């Protein structure tokens, strides 16, 4: 089986569960560390000719992270493309199982069972807080409706302010974000790399939680530890 992954979290899942199956991945596929495969460009601008030259049996993609014209070009070249759709935590588990089955993984991996059990046994949050969750600046963009990351936070007791916005990732002026008066601001380190020196200064007087973007937005082996890792960061910033 020869697989090219265009989704960083799925790259990690396949690499861990089907060693040797991956022959290509995006430049953003950072896990597992030391992954030695051909790099095929970004998630939004993959080099389709390079992908085709790898003669993959399957390309795995995601409806949000990858662009339909690129996937259509691969299909037109005779490449099979599997597209996932993952908008909340429960949806992640059957979709991951579907991907691994398509990649020739015969038995459900232990990490997937552990991740599902971890999320299904989460205690009900004792306190609920509101948050603004930027994912980009210049311009400022935040989590909006119907996002995986938003569902992750909600299950940990954090309701993001723009969950009912018509757009999934709306652009919102900084003044409006401040005026929303959330209990806290959640700043992930991807896709924009917010740091202690780049992000919190825009929200004076508001508690800011710097969190792992991999644990907030990835659906793969990191799901098993995400509640613990994110919970620790959120508690550290709680007002």
UniProtKB/TrEMBL annotation:
The lineage of its organism: Bacteria, Bacillati, Actinomycetota, Actinomycetes, Kitasatosporales. It comes from Streptomyces afghaniensis 772. This is Putative Vitamin B12-binding protein. Belongs to the bacterial solute-binding protein 8 family. Keywords: Signal. Coiled coil: none annotated. It comes from the Bacteria. Residues 2-239 form the Fe/B12 periplasmic-binding domain.
């Amino acid at each position: 089986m020869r697989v090219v992954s265009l989704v960083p979290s799925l790259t990690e899942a396949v690499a861990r569960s089907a060693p040797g199956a991956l022959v290509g991945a995006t430049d953003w596929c950072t896990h597992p560390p030391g992954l030695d495969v051909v790099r095929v460009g970004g998630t939004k601008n993959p080099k389709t000719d390079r992908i085709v030259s790898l003669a993959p049996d399957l390309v795995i993609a995601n409806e949000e992270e990858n662009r339909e014209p690129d996937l259509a070009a691969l299909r037109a070249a005779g490449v099979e493309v599997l597209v996932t759709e993952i908008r909340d935590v429960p949806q992640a588990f059957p979709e991951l199982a579907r991907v691994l089955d398509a990649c020739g993984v015969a038995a459900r991996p232990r990490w997937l069972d552990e991740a599902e059990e971890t999320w299904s046994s989460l205690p009900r949050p004792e306190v609920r807080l509101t948050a603004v969750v930027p994912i980009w600046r210049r311009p400022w963009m935040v989590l909006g409706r119907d996002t995986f990351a938003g569902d992750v936070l909600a299950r940990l007791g954090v309701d993001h302010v723009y969950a009912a916005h018509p757009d999934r990732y709306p652009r919102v002026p900084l003044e409006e974000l401040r005026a929303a008066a959330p209990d806290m601001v959640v700043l992930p380190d991807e896709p924009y790399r917010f740091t202690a020196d780049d992000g919190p200064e825009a929200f004076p007087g508001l508690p800011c939680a710097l969190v792992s973007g991999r644990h907030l937005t990835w659906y793969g082996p990191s799901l098993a530890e995400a509640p613990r890792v994110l919970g620790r960061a959120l508690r550290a910033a709680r007002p």
